[in-house]
Amino acid sequence: MKRLLPGVFLVFVGCAELPHDLPARPALKAPETAAMLSALSNTSTDTDIPLLQEHWWTSFGLTNLDRLIETALRDAPDLAAAQARLRTADQAERLARLDAQVHYETDTSITREHLSKNGLFPPPIGGSTFTQTDITENLSYTLDWWGKNRALIQAAGNERQAARDEADAVRQTLAAAVADTYFAWADVEARLAAARALTQSHRKEHALLKARFDLGLDSAQPLIDARKKLDLDEDRTRSLDYLARALRYRMSALVGSDPDHAASLPMPELDARLPALPARLPLDWLARRPDVAALRSQVEAASDRSAAARADFYPNLDLRMMIGLETLDLSKLFQANSLSASIGPALHLPIFNRQTLSAKLGMREADYAASVAAYNRTILEAARQAADAYALIASLEHRSQAQRLALHETEQTRSLAEQRRQIGLASPLDALEANSAVLAQRMNEIEIQAARLRARVALFKALGGDALHKDLAP
Q: Between 29 and 138, whose confidence is greater?
Protein backbone atom coordinates (compact mmCIF):
# COMPACT_ATOMS: atom_id res chain seq x y z
CA MET A 1 0.00 0.00 0.00
CA LYS A 2 2.84 2.37 0.85
CA ARG A 3 4.31 1.77 -2.60
CA LEU A 4 1.12 3.02 -4.23
CA LEU A 5 1.01 6.26 -2.26
CA PRO A 6 3.65 8.09 -4.37
CA GLY A 7 1.77 7.19 -7.54
CA VAL A 8 -1.55 8.35 -6.12
CA PHE A 9 0.11 11.56 -4.94
CA LEU A 10 1.53 12.19 -8.44
CA VAL A 11 -1.90 11.67 -10.01
CA PHE A 12 -3.49 14.30 -7.81
CA VAL A 13 -0.74 16.90 -7.89
CA GLY A 14 -0.10 16.35 -11.62
CA CYS A 15 -3.51 17.67 -12.68
CA ALA A 16 -3.56 20.97 -14.55
CA GLU A 17 -6.11 23.50 -13.41
CA LEU A 18 -9.03 24.05 -15.77
CA PRO A 19 -9.38 27.66 -16.99
CA HIS A 20 -11.98 29.82 -15.27
CA ASP A 21 -12.43 32.37 -18.05
CA LEU A 22 -14.28 30.16 -20.54
CA PRO A 23 -17.49 31.81 -21.79
CA ALA A 24 -20.85 30.19 -21.10
CA ARG A 25 -22.01 27.79 -23.76
CA PRO A 26 -24.76 29.09 -26.09
CA ALA A 27 -28.10 27.30 -26.12
CA LEU A 28 -29.62 25.47 -29.06
CA LYS A 29 -32.74 27.15 -30.40
CA ALA A 30 -36.03 25.30 -30.94
CA PRO A 31 -38.40 27.46 -33.04
CA GLU A 32 -42.12 27.27 -32.31
CA THR A 33 -44.00 25.74 -35.23
CA ALA A 34 -47.34 24.85 -33.64
CA ALA A 35 -49.21 27.59 -35.52
CA MET A 36 -47.73 26.46 -38.81
CA LEU A 37 -48.68 22.83 -38.13
CA SER A 38 -52.20 24.00 -37.35
CA ALA A 39 -52.30 25.94 -40.60
CA LEU A 40 -51.16 22.82 -42.43
CA SER A 41 -53.99 20.75 -41.02
CA ASN A 42 -56.46 23.50 -41.93
CA THR A 43 -55.29 23.79 -45.54
CA SER A 44 -55.35 20.03 -46.16
CA THR A 45 -58.76 18.58 -47.00
CA ASP A 46 -57.75 14.94 -47.03
CA THR A 47 -56.75 13.59 -43.63
CA ASP A 48 -55.50 10.35 -45.16
CA ILE A 49 -52.60 12.04 -46.95
CA PRO A 50 -49.28 10.81 -45.52
CA LEU A 51 -46.31 12.99 -44.63
CA LEU A 52 -44.91 13.09 -48.15
CA GLN A 53 -44.29 10.49 -50.81
CA GLU A 54 -40.92 8.88 -50.27
CA HIS A 55 -39.75 10.35 -53.57
CA TRP A 56 -41.78 13.53 -53.35
CA TRP A 57 -41.13 14.63 -56.94
CA THR A 58 -43.14 11.66 -58.27
CA SER A 59 -46.27 13.24 -56.79
CA PHE A 60 -46.32 15.68 -59.75
CA GLY A 61 -47.00 12.79 -62.11
CA LEU A 62 -44.44 13.80 -64.76
CA THR A 63 -42.28 11.03 -66.20
CA ASN A 64 -39.76 13.42 -67.75
CA LEU A 65 -39.25 15.17 -64.41
CA ASP A 66 -38.73 11.84 -62.65
CA ARG A 67 -36.10 10.81 -65.20
CA LEU A 68 -34.24 14.11 -64.96
CA ILE A 69 -34.06 13.92 -61.17
CA GLU A 70 -32.93 10.28 -61.29
CA THR A 71 -30.19 11.27 -63.73
CA ALA A 72 -29.11 14.19 -61.54
CA LEU A 73 -28.96 12.00 -58.42
CA ARG A 74 -26.81 9.53 -60.32
CA ASP A 75 -24.42 11.77 -62.25
CA ALA A 76 -24.25 15.18 -60.54
CA PRO A 77 -20.74 16.23 -59.36
CA ASP A 78 -22.10 17.74 -56.12
CA LEU A 79 -23.45 14.38 -55.01
CA ALA A 80 -20.19 12.64 -55.93
CA ALA A 81 -18.32 15.14 -53.75
CA ALA A 82 -20.74 14.52 -50.86
CA GLN A 83 -20.24 10.76 -51.17
CA ALA A 84 -16.46 11.27 -51.11
CA ARG A 85 -16.77 13.31 -47.89
CA LEU A 86 -18.86 10.52 -46.39
CA ARG A 87 -16.18 7.94 -47.22
CA THR A 88 -13.58 10.22 -45.62
CA ALA A 89 -15.69 10.46 -42.45
CA ASP A 90 -16.11 6.66 -42.38
CA GLN A 91 -12.34 6.18 -42.43
CA ALA A 92 -11.84 8.91 -39.81
CA GLU A 93 -14.16 7.08 -37.42
CA ARG A 94 -12.33 3.83 -38.11
CA LEU A 95 -9.00 5.48 -37.31
CA ALA A 96 -10.41 6.89 -34.05
CA ARG A 97 -11.52 3.43 -32.95
CA LEU A 98 -8.17 1.89 -33.90
CA ASP A 99 -6.31 4.62 -32.03
CA ALA A 100 -8.14 3.67 -28.82
CA GLN A 101 -7.00 0.05 -29.04
CA VAL A 102 -3.62 -1.58 -28.41
CA HIS A 103 -0.92 -0.16 -30.66
CA TYR A 104 1.47 -2.59 -32.32
CA GLU A 105 4.75 -1.64 -33.90
CA THR A 106 7.32 -4.01 -35.35
CA ASP A 107 10.89 -2.84 -36.03
CA THR A 108 13.72 -4.72 -37.69
CA SER A 109 17.25 -3.43 -38.19
CA ILE A 110 20.63 -4.81 -39.29
CA THR A 111 23.59 -2.50 -38.68
CA ARG A 112 27.20 -3.13 -39.71
CA GLU A 113 29.44 -1.02 -37.45
CA HIS A 114 33.19 -0.46 -36.98
CA LEU A 115 34.33 0.97 -33.60
CA SER A 116 37.28 3.37 -33.40
CA LYS A 117 40.37 2.23 -31.49
CA ASN A 118 40.70 5.78 -30.11
CA GLY A 119 37.07 6.10 -29.09
CA LEU A 120 35.16 5.35 -25.91
CA PHE A 121 35.82 1.62 -25.98
CA PRO A 122 39.47 0.46 -25.74
CA PRO A 123 40.85 -2.53 -27.73
CA PRO A 124 39.99 -5.29 -28.29
CA ILE A 125 36.44 -3.88 -28.48
CA GLY A 126 37.74 -0.71 -30.04
CA GLY A 127 38.86 -1.39 -33.59
CA SER A 128 36.47 -4.31 -33.98
CA THR A 129 33.75 -4.65 -36.59
CA PHE A 130 30.43 -6.33 -35.88
CA THR A 131 26.89 -6.70 -37.19
CA GLN A 132 24.04 -5.70 -34.85
CA THR A 133 20.71 -7.42 -35.60
CA ASP A 134 17.51 -6.34 -33.81
CA ILE A 135 13.89 -7.50 -34.14
CA THR A 136 11.47 -5.84 -31.71
CA GLU A 137 7.71 -5.82 -31.19
CA ASN A 138 6.42 -2.82 -29.25
CA LEU A 139 2.99 -2.76 -27.66
CA SER A 140 1.33 0.20 -25.97
CA TYR A 141 -2.09 0.85 -24.54
CA THR A 142 -3.54 4.04 -23.06
CA LEU A 143 -5.75 3.63 -20.02
CA ASP A 144 -8.65 5.89 -20.87
CA TRP A 145 -9.34 7.01 -17.30
CA TRP A 146 -10.94 10.33 -18.20
CA GLY A 147 -12.79 9.29 -21.36
CA LYS A 148 -10.66 11.10 -23.92
CA ASN A 149 -10.61 8.23 -26.42
CA ARG A 150 -14.32 7.58 -25.94
CA ALA A 151 -15.04 11.24 -26.63
CA LEU A 152 -12.89 11.20 -29.78
CA ILE A 153 -14.67 8.07 -31.03
CA GLN A 154 -18.04 9.70 -30.39
CA ALA A 155 -16.87 12.85 -32.17
CA ALA A 156 -15.80 10.84 -35.22
CA GLY A 157 -19.13 9.00 -35.21
CA ASN A 158 -21.05 12.27 -35.06
CA GLU A 159 -18.96 13.69 -37.89
CA ARG A 160 -19.69 10.58 -39.94
CA GLN A 161 -23.40 11.05 -39.27
CA ALA A 162 -23.07 14.70 -40.24
CA ALA A 163 -21.45 13.69 -43.53
CA ARG A 164 -24.29 11.22 -44.17
CA ASP A 165 -26.88 13.93 -43.45
CA GLU A 166 -25.00 16.37 -45.67
CA ALA A 167 -25.17 13.84 -48.50
CA ASP A 168 -28.94 13.56 -47.94
CA ALA A 169 -29.18 17.36 -47.93
CA VAL A 170 -27.34 17.48 -51.25
CA ARG A 171 -29.81 14.94 -52.68
CA GLN A 172 -32.83 16.92 -51.53
CA THR A 173 -31.35 20.24 -52.66
CA LEU A 174 -30.43 18.78 -56.04
CA ALA A 175 -33.87 17.21 -56.54
CA ALA A 176 -35.55 20.49 -55.57
CA ALA A 177 -33.28 22.47 -57.91
CA VAL A 178 -34.11 20.17 -60.83
CA ALA A 179 -37.86 20.34 -60.10
CA ASP A 180 -37.82 24.12 -59.66
CA THR A 181 -35.81 24.61 -62.86
CA TYR A 182 -38.13 22.23 -64.70
CA PHE A 183 -41.27 24.20 -63.80
CA ALA A 184 -39.56 27.55 -64.37
CA TRP A 185 -38.49 26.33 -67.80
CA ALA A 186 -41.99 24.98 -68.54
CA ASP A 187 -43.43 28.35 -67.48
CA VAL A 188 -41.15 30.25 -69.85
CA GLU A 189 -41.80 27.89 -72.78
CA ALA A 190 -45.57 28.09 -72.30
CA ARG A 191 -45.51 31.88 -71.97
CA LEU A 192 -43.24 32.08 -75.01
CA ALA A 193 -45.80 30.18 -77.10
CA ALA A 194 -48.57 32.45 -75.80
CA ALA A 195 -46.43 35.54 -76.45
CA ARG A 196 -45.92 34.47 -80.07
CA ALA A 197 -49.67 33.96 -80.48
CA LEU A 198 -50.24 37.40 -78.96
CA THR A 199 -47.74 38.89 -81.39
CA GLN A 200 -49.68 37.38 -84.31
CA SER A 201 -52.89 38.92 -82.96
CA HIS A 202 -51.22 42.30 -82.61
CA ARG A 203 -49.87 42.06 -86.15
CA LYS A 204 -53.40 41.55 -87.44
CA GLU A 205 -54.52 44.59 -85.43
CA HIS A 206 -51.66 46.59 -86.91
CA ALA A 207 -52.58 45.51 -90.43
CA LEU A 208 -56.22 46.55 -89.95
CA LEU A 209 -55.26 49.90 -88.45
CA LYS A 210 -52.81 50.56 -91.29
CA ALA A 211 -55.52 49.82 -93.82
CA ARG A 212 -57.89 52.21 -92.04
CA PHE A 213 -55.18 54.85 -91.90
CA ASP A 214 -54.41 54.46 -95.60
CA LEU A 215 -58.13 54.90 -96.33
CA GLY A 216 -58.23 58.00 -94.16
CA LEU A 217 -60.64 56.44 -91.65
CA ASP A 218 -58.37 56.79 -88.60
CA SER A 219 -55.65 59.10 -87.44
CA ALA A 220 -52.04 58.02 -87.07
CA GLN A 221 -52.26 57.63 -83.27
CA PRO A 222 -53.96 54.17 -83.22
CA LEU A 223 -51.38 52.95 -85.73
CA ILE A 224 -48.53 54.27 -83.58
CA ASP A 225 -50.01 52.54 -80.51
CA ALA A 226 -50.26 49.27 -82.44
CA ARG A 227 -46.61 49.63 -83.49
CA LYS A 228 -45.65 50.10 -79.82
CA LYS A 229 -47.47 46.88 -78.95
CA LEU A 230 -45.45 45.00 -81.57
CA ASP A 231 -42.22 46.49 -80.25
CA LEU A 232 -43.13 45.39 -76.72
CA ASP A 233 -44.08 41.96 -78.05
CA GLU A 234 -40.71 41.58 -79.74
CA ASP A 235 -38.87 42.61 -76.57
CA ARG A 236 -40.92 40.17 -74.47
CA THR A 237 -40.39 37.34 -76.95
CA ARG A 238 -36.63 37.88 -77.07
CA SER A 239 -36.47 37.99 -73.27
CA LEU A 240 -38.50 34.80 -72.88
CA ASP A 241 -36.45 33.09 -75.57
CA TYR A 242 -33.24 33.94 -73.69
CA LEU A 243 -34.71 32.70 -70.40
CA ALA A 244 -35.73 29.44 -72.06
CA ARG A 245 -32.20 28.89 -73.34
CA ALA A 246 -30.65 29.81 -69.99
CA LEU A 247 -32.96 27.43 -68.10
CA ARG A 248 -32.21 24.67 -70.58
CA TYR A 249 -28.48 25.14 -69.96
CA ARG A 250 -29.07 25.23 -66.21
CA MET A 251 -31.02 21.97 -66.36
CA SER A 252 -28.22 20.41 -68.38
CA ALA A 253 -25.70 21.40 -65.70
CA LEU A 254 -27.92 20.07 -62.90
CA VAL A 255 -28.13 16.63 -64.48
CA GLY A 256 -24.35 16.54 -64.89
CA SER A 257 -24.20 17.25 -68.61
CA ASP A 258 -22.57 19.96 -70.72
CA PRO A 259 -24.22 22.76 -72.75
CA ASP A 260 -23.75 20.90 -76.04
CA HIS A 261 -26.17 18.21 -74.82
CA ALA A 262 -28.79 20.70 -73.63
CA ALA A 263 -30.67 20.45 -76.92
CA SER A 264 -31.36 16.75 -76.28
CA LEU A 265 -33.28 17.46 -73.06
CA PRO A 266 -37.02 16.74 -73.22
CA MET A 267 -39.36 19.71 -73.49
CA PRO A 268 -40.86 20.42 -70.04
CA GLU A 269 -44.58 20.12 -69.38
CA LEU A 270 -46.67 22.44 -67.25
CA ASP A 271 -49.79 20.26 -66.99
CA ALA A 272 -48.52 18.55 -63.84
CA ARG A 273 -50.67 17.20 -61.06
CA LEU A 274 -50.73 19.65 -58.16
CA PRO A 275 -49.73 17.56 -55.13
CA ALA A 276 -51.91 17.80 -52.05
CA LEU A 277 -50.37 19.23 -48.91
CA PRO A 278 -49.41 16.69 -46.24
CA ALA A 279 -52.11 16.42 -43.60
CA ARG A 280 -49.70 16.08 -40.70
CA LEU A 281 -46.07 16.50 -39.74
CA PRO A 282 -44.05 14.97 -36.91
CA LEU A 283 -43.35 17.38 -34.08
CA ASP A 284 -39.62 16.98 -34.68
CA TRP A 285 -39.85 17.66 -38.42
CA LEU A 286 -37.33 20.49 -38.19
CA ALA A 287 -34.74 18.20 -36.61
CA ARG A 288 -35.30 15.68 -39.41
CA ARG A 289 -34.28 18.12 -42.13
CA PRO A 290 -30.94 16.75 -43.36
CA ASP A 291 -29.12 20.09 -43.25
CA VAL A 292 -30.37 20.74 -39.69
CA ALA A 293 -29.56 17.18 -38.64
CA ALA A 294 -26.06 17.51 -40.08
CA LEU A 295 -25.39 20.67 -38.09
CA ARG A 296 -26.79 19.07 -34.93
CA SER A 297 -24.32 16.22 -35.39
CA GLN A 298 -21.58 18.81 -35.87
CA VAL A 299 -22.59 20.41 -32.55
CA GLU A 300 -22.39 17.02 -30.83
CA ALA A 301 -19.01 16.36 -32.42
CA ALA A 302 -17.71 19.75 -31.24
CA SER A 303 -18.93 18.98 -27.72
CA ASP A 304 -17.18 15.61 -27.79
CA ARG A 305 -13.91 17.15 -28.94
CA SER A 306 -14.17 19.72 -26.17
CA ALA A 307 -14.65 16.88 -23.68
CA ALA A 308 -11.52 15.22 -25.06
CA ALA A 309 -9.61 18.49 -24.60
CA ARG A 310 -10.79 18.67 -20.97
CA ALA A 311 -9.51 15.14 -20.37
CA ASP A 312 -6.00 16.34 -21.28
CA PHE A 313 -5.93 18.36 -18.02
CA TYR A 314 -5.70 15.12 -16.02
CA PRO A 315 -2.82 12.64 -15.76
CA ASN A 316 -2.90 9.63 -18.00
CA LEU A 317 -1.16 6.28 -17.84
CA ASP A 318 0.22 4.27 -20.75
CA LEU A 319 1.18 0.62 -20.47
CA ARG A 320 4.15 -0.27 -22.66
CA MET A 321 5.81 -3.57 -23.44
CA MET A 322 8.68 -4.52 -25.71
CA ILE A 323 9.81 -7.99 -26.69
CA GLY A 324 12.45 -8.79 -29.28
CA LEU A 325 15.61 -10.48 -30.39
CA GLU A 326 19.07 -8.88 -30.30
CA THR A 327 22.41 -10.35 -31.33
CA LEU A 328 25.84 -9.57 -32.72
CA ASP A 329 25.93 -12.97 -34.43
CA LEU A 330 23.18 -13.46 -36.99
CA SER A 331 23.39 -17.26 -36.61
CA LYS A 332 22.35 -16.90 -32.93
CA LEU A 333 19.39 -14.59 -33.60
CA PHE A 334 16.70 -17.15 -32.78
CA GLN A 335 18.40 -18.61 -29.73
CA ALA A 336 16.85 -18.10 -26.29
CA ASN A 337 19.80 -16.04 -25.10
CA SER A 338 19.02 -13.43 -27.79
CA LEU A 339 15.68 -12.62 -26.21
CA SER A 340 15.19 -9.09 -24.81
CA ALA A 341 12.05 -7.67 -23.19
CA SER A 342 10.76 -4.76 -21.14
CA ILE A 343 7.46 -3.75 -19.57
CA GLY A 344 6.32 -0.80 -17.52
CA PRO A 345 3.94 2.14 -17.15
CA ALA A 346 4.43 5.67 -18.46
CA LEU A 347 2.67 8.42 -16.55
CA HIS A 348 1.83 11.64 -18.35
CA LEU A 349 1.57 14.68 -16.04
CA PRO A 350 0.10 17.83 -17.65
CA ILE A 351 0.83 20.12 -14.70
CA PHE A 352 3.35 22.25 -16.59
CA ASN A 353 1.31 22.45 -19.84
CA ARG A 354 -1.65 24.42 -18.46
CA GLN A 355 -1.36 27.36 -20.86
CA THR A 356 -1.13 25.15 -23.93
CA LEU A 357 -4.02 22.97 -22.79
CA SER A 358 -6.10 26.03 -21.93
CA ALA A 359 -5.56 27.44 -25.41
CA LYS A 360 -6.59 24.13 -27.01
CA LEU A 361 -9.69 23.91 -24.84
CA GLY A 362 -10.56 27.51 -25.67
CA MET A 363 -10.32 26.66 -29.38
CA ARG A 364 -12.61 23.65 -28.92
CA GLU A 365 -15.15 25.71 -27.01
CA ALA A 366 -15.03 28.37 -29.73
CA ASP A 367 -15.64 25.64 -32.32
CA TYR A 368 -18.64 24.50 -30.26
CA ALA A 369 -20.04 28.03 -30.09
CA ALA A 370 -19.59 28.42 -33.86
CA SER A 371 -21.36 25.10 -34.47
CA VAL A 372 -24.26 26.15 -32.25
CA ALA A 373 -24.52 29.49 -34.06
CA ALA A 374 -24.59 27.73 -37.44
CA TYR A 375 -27.23 25.31 -36.14
CA ASN A 376 -29.41 28.09 -34.71
CA ARG A 377 -29.15 30.11 -37.90
CA THR A 378 -30.07 27.11 -40.06
CA ILE A 379 -32.99 25.90 -37.94
CA LEU A 380 -34.49 29.40 -37.81
CA GLU A 381 -34.04 29.72 -41.56
CA ALA A 382 -35.66 26.30 -42.03
CA ALA A 383 -38.69 27.36 -40.02
CA ARG A 384 -38.88 30.62 -41.98
CA GLN A 385 -38.65 28.80 -45.32
CA ALA A 386 -41.51 26.48 -44.39
CA ALA A 387 -43.65 29.37 -43.12
CA ASP A 388 -42.92 31.40 -46.26
CA ALA A 389 -43.78 28.43 -48.45
CA TYR A 390 -47.14 28.00 -46.72
CA ALA A 391 -47.85 31.72 -46.99
CA LEU A 392 -46.94 31.71 -50.68
CA ILE A 393 -49.13 28.68 -51.36
CA ALA A 394 -52.10 30.32 -49.64
CA SER A 395 -51.53 33.56 -51.57
CA LEU A 396 -51.23 31.75 -54.89
CA GLU A 397 -54.44 29.84 -54.25
CA HIS A 398 -56.34 33.13 -53.93
CA ARG A 399 -54.56 34.60 -56.93
CA SER A 400 -55.32 31.50 -58.98
CA GLN A 401 -59.02 31.74 -58.20
CA ALA A 402 -59.09 35.43 -59.13
CA GLN A 403 -57.10 34.74 -62.31
CA ARG A 404 -59.44 31.94 -63.40
CA LEU A 405 -62.38 34.30 -62.93
CA ALA A 406 -60.62 37.05 -64.89
CA LEU A 407 -59.80 34.63 -67.72
CA HIS A 408 -63.37 33.36 -67.82
CA GLU A 409 -64.74 36.88 -68.02
CA THR A 410 -62.24 37.82 -70.74
CA GLU A 411 -63.20 34.76 -72.77
CA GLN A 412 -66.86 35.72 -72.43
CA THR A 413 -66.00 39.19 -73.69
CA ARG A 414 -64.20 37.68 -76.68
CA SER A 415 -67.18 35.46 -77.48
CA LEU A 416 -69.51 38.43 -77.37
CA ALA A 417 -67.16 40.48 -79.56
CA GLU A 418 -66.99 37.67 -82.09
CA GLN A 419 -70.80 37.34 -82.12
CA ARG A 420 -71.20 41.09 -82.57
CA ARG A 421 -68.66 41.03 -85.42
CA GLN A 422 -70.52 38.27 -87.18
CA ILE A 423 -73.80 40.22 -87.14
CA GLY A 424 -72.10 43.50 -88.04
CA LEU A 425 -72.39 45.25 -84.66
CA ALA A 426 -68.63 45.23 -84.00
CA SER A 427 -65.57 45.65 -86.16
CA PRO A 428 -62.91 42.93 -86.70
CA LEU A 429 -60.60 45.16 -84.69
CA ASP A 430 -62.82 44.79 -81.61
CA ALA A 431 -62.68 41.00 -81.95
CA LEU A 432 -58.89 41.04 -82.32
CA GLU A 433 -58.48 43.24 -79.24
CA ALA A 434 -60.70 40.88 -77.25
CA ASN A 435 -58.62 37.92 -78.45
CA SER A 436 -55.41 39.69 -77.45
CA ALA A 437 -56.85 40.30 -73.99
CA VAL A 438 -57.57 36.57 -73.64
CA LEU A 439 -53.99 35.69 -74.64
CA ALA A 440 -52.62 38.18 -72.10
CA GLN A 441 -54.78 36.64 -69.36
CA ARG A 442 -53.61 33.16 -70.37
CA MET A 443 -50.02 34.28 -69.96
CA ASN A 444 -50.88 35.42 -66.42
CA GLU A 445 -52.59 32.10 -65.73
CA ILE A 446 -49.55 30.18 -66.97
CA GLU A 447 -47.28 32.20 -64.70
CA ILE A 448 -49.49 31.62 -61.65
CA GLN A 449 -49.83 27.88 -62.37
CA ALA A 450 -46.04 27.55 -62.62
CA ALA A 451 -45.66 29.55 -59.41
CA ARG A 452 -48.06 27.17 -57.63
CA LEU A 453 -45.98 24.17 -58.73
CA ARG A 454 -42.71 25.86 -57.75
CA ALA A 455 -44.21 26.79 -54.37
CA ARG A 456 -44.95 23.09 -53.78
CA VAL A 457 -41.33 22.30 -54.58
CA ALA A 458 -40.14 24.98 -52.15
CA LEU A 459 -42.44 23.59 -49.45
CA PHE A 460 -41.28 20.00 -49.93
CA LYS A 461 -37.67 21.14 -49.76
CA ALA A 462 -38.36 23.23 -46.65
CA LEU A 463 -39.99 20.25 -44.94
CA GLY A 464 -36.93 18.11 -45.57
CA GLY A 465 -38.31 15.97 -48.38
CA ASP A 466 -37.61 12.27 -47.93
CA ALA A 467 -36.03 12.93 -44.52
CA LEU A 468 -39.50 12.97 -42.96
CA HIS A 469 -39.59 9.19 -43.45
CA LYS A 470 -36.34 8.61 -41.62
CA ASP A 471 -35.79 8.09 -37.93
CA LEU A 472 -33.51 10.51 -36.13
CA ALA A 473 -29.97 9.26 -35.63
CA PRO A 474 -29.29 8.18 -32.05
A: 138
